[in-house]
Design goal:
It is built from six helices and five strands. With about 130 residues, it is α+β, with helices and mostly antiparallel strands. Helix 3 crosses helix 4 and helix 3 packs across helix 5. The chain is globular and about 50 Å long.
Length: about 130
C-alpha cells in the first residue's frame, strides 16, 4: 500500500477480532477499539473534580480498569459489542480475576495498551 488519500482515511477500517479461551470450553471474542472508543475508555478512567474556585482538575479513577476495558472490547464473532457501558461494575464483581485477566491481556495486545500507557493515565491525571 501507499499513501492514503482522504477517502481511504475516512473509510471504516475492519477491526481485528480474536477468540479468547477462558477454559472449561468457554470462550469470548475481543476486538480492536476505534480511536473514539479508546478515547472514551480512557476518559472513563478519569474523574472530574472542581476546587473551591471552580477550577476543573482530573484524578485517576483506575478502579474497575479491567472491566471497563472488557466492556469496550468483548464482542460477538461479527464485532458487535456484547456489553453495555453500565455493565462494568457487575462484570467486575461477578467474574473471577483470572478469567477477566485472560480477556484483558488479549484486549491490551490488540489495542496496543502498554503498562506505560496505564502509568501515563495515572500520572497525567495526578499532575493536572
Amino acid at each position: 500500500m501507499g499513501l492514503l488519500n482522504r477517502v481511504a482515511l475516512l473509510n471504516k477500517e475492519e477491526l481485528k477480532i480474536e477468540k479468547v479461551d477462558l477454559g472449561g470450553g468457554d470462550f469470548v471474542y475481543v476486538r480492536q477499539m476505534t480511536a473514539r472508543e479508546r478515547d472514551r475508555w480512557e476518559q472513563s478512567l478519569l474523574r472530574e473534580k472542581r476546587d473551591r474556585g471552580r477550577a476543573i482538575t482530573f484524578e485517576s479513577a483506575m478502579e474497575d480498569f479491567r472491566a471497563k476495558l472488557a466492556v469496550h472490547t468483548v464482542c460477538d464473532e461479527h464485532g458487535k459489542n456484547l456489553l453495555e457501558q453500565s455493565d462494568y461494575e457487575m462484570l467486575s464483581q461477578n467474574m473471577s480475576a483470572a478469567r477477566l485477566e485472560l480477556i484483558i491481556n488479549r484486549s491490551q495486545e490488540l489495542n496496543k495498551i502498554s503498562a506505560e500507557d496505564r502509568e501515563a493515565l495515572v500520572k497525567n491525571s495526578e499532575g493536572d
